[in-house]
Design goal:
- By secondary structure, this protein is mostly helical.
- The protein folds into 2 domains: 2-95, NAD(P)-binding Rossmann-like Domain (Rossmann fold, 3-Layer(aba) Sandwich); 101-220, N-(1-d-carboxylethyl)-l-norvaline Dehydrogenase, domain 2, CATH 1.10.1040.
- It has 10 helices and 5 strands.
- The protein has helices at 2-7, 30-42, 55-60, 72-83, 97-125, 130-137, 145-156, 165-182, 187-201, 212-220; strands at 21-24, 46-49, 52-53, 64-69, 86-93.
- The strands form 2 sheets. The protein has a 3-stranded mixed sheet with strand order 3-4-5.
- It starts with a helix and ends in a 13-residue tail after the last helix.
């Protein structure tokens, strides 16, 4: 719990002296982040929210995308540290904006996974070879990193976790909660969350998030690559 780590007994705040910079690289609520920043600023220190994207592969390769919220002064002071971990490092705006950017990233990823899953499931159900359909789409306007990586996982049924469904559920919960507070409707995000929930109900919290397609397959009563759909007579 970030709040306890920062402000609980023996937490970060107890050891801070004026002028220090606190960097929070977890993925949490933008609203809570702004509250934490206010408390840290009141101690004469600065706070940066700096969630990342790129997963385990990006972390090992030091190629993470880092989305930072906070003051430009604090950002410039610690940017050399970020450069040890990532390649695409952006000061998005003030405190909370880094977390907002991360939540937006997770919305896009979830909806792209859903779109790729639906497209490949459609192709398979119609009797086409989903692998060849994916190959063709990779050369067109529908090409994406999600189609490349997650589409292959869907076809090969390799759902060992790179990014677990339960973690994506948490991120979409942040999105939907913040949207409610802002009076904003995110209907497609809500649908993606329900599909993740369906996977979790099947014991899939630990599956890779590309396994969202399993919920779609359950609805269709068809598994990608399971053979051609029968022809209409």
């Amino acid at each position: 719990d970030v709040s306890a780590a920062l402000f609980g007994e023996g937490g970060v705040a107890e050891g801070l002296s004026p002028g220090k910079i606190v960097i929070d690289m977890s993925s949490i609520s933008p609203v809570e982040t702004k509250q934490f920043a206010q408390k840290i600023n009141a101690l004469g220190c600065q706070y940066l929210d700096a969630p990342v994207s790129g997963g385990e592969v990006g972390a090992k390769a030091a190629s993470l995308t880092i989305m930072v919220g906070g003051s430009e002064d604090a950002f410039n002071k610690v940017k050399p540290l970020f450069e040890l971990m990532g390649k695409n490092i952006t000061l998005v705006g003030g405190n909370g904006d880094g977390q907002t950017c991360k939540v937006a990233n997770q919305i896009i990823v979830a909806l792209n996974i859903e779109a790729v899953g639906e497209a490949l499931l459609f192709a398979s159900k119609m009797g086409a070879d989903p692998a060849k359909v994916r190959q063709a789409l990779m050369g067109g306007f529908a090409s994406s990193r999600i189609l490349e990586v997650h589409g292959e996982r869907m076809i090969k049924r390799t759902f060992n976790p790179g990014f677990r469904i339960e973690l994506h559920q948490k991120d979409l919960s942040l999105a939907l909660s913040a949207a409610r507070q802002a009076g904003l409707s995110l209907p497609n995000t809500a649908t993606a969350q329900e599909l993740f929930n369906a996977c979790a109900a099947q014991g899939g919290k630990g599956w890779d998030h590309s396994a969202l397609v399993r919920a779609l397959e359950l609805l269709a009563k068809h598994e990608i690559g399971a053979g051609s759909a029968p022809s209409a007579k």
